[in-house]
Design a protein that fits this description.
By secondary structure, the chain is mainly beta. The chain has one helix at about 1-20, and strands at about 25-35, 45-55, 60-85, 90-110, 115-130, 140-150, 155-165, 190-200.
């Protein structure tokens, strides 16, 4: 259901940008999402992302690229201490935390040499779904940075890092006392790596 909504928004997004831009190339992107939540005892969560973009070429070396992406994030194997009400003893459970975002990004794209690209820009992430028990922020604001290589055909390979700035959950619930060699704190933010491909269509 969330994927259908994202696809519909994607179509409207492209239609609006196409009307506004002169040198415009629409495109699709997707790939592997590796994410975790900072300052917690947790493992990286492998999942996926997909979306679309509109490349607005302002010069030969610079393009502004609005994007809309569906991204699945979170953390696996989050250790949580709790008191068993039946035995009144301290126990540990391990949880997989899931987050789904509709990510609206404005990427600055600089081209160097034969197809190499440097990418960076802000992102507003609107939460679509999650399995968190206690939240601090439903949405997130992040910064994206990455590298890419684009072939003459329009096929490109990308590696990106996205760092959220908002505290997304209440760490009092996801508390871990037995983290002697793991950092645990109150400022729990999204960390996301994306490795994938994109393809831009020549509309001329």
């Amino acid at each position: 259901m969330q994927c259908k909504k994202s696809a519909h928004i994607l179509f409207v997004f492209f239609a609006i940008i196409k009307l506004q831009a002169q040198d415009f190339k629409p495109g699709l992107r997707g790939g592997l999402s590796l994410s975790t939540i900072s300052e917690m005892h947790a493992n990286y969560k492998p999942d996926f992302y997909f979306g679309g973009f509109g490349e607005i070429n302002l010069t030969k070396k610079y393009a502004l690229q609005p994007e809309i992406n569906y991204v699945r994030q979170g953390s696996n194997n989050v250790a949580r201490n709790y008191t068993d009400p039946d035995t009144n003893t301290e126990r540990i459970e391990h949880l997989d935390l899931k987050l789904e975002y509709l990510s609206l990004s404005m990427i600055n794209k600089f081209a160097f040499g034969q197809g190499f690209q440097v990418l960076f820009g802000p992102s507003l992430d609107i939460r679509l779904n999650d399995n968190l028990v206690l939240r601090k922020n439903y949405n997130d604001f992040a910064f994206v940075a990455g590298l890419g290589y684009c072939m003459p055909s329009g096929l490109a390979f990308e590696a990106r890092f996205k760092k959220g700035f908002l505290d997304i959950l209440d760490s009092d619930y996801y508390h871990n006392d037995t983290n002697s060699h793991y950092l645990f704190g109150d400022y729990n933010t999204n960390i996301n790596f994306q490795i994938g491909i994109s393809y831009s269509f020549d509309t001329k």
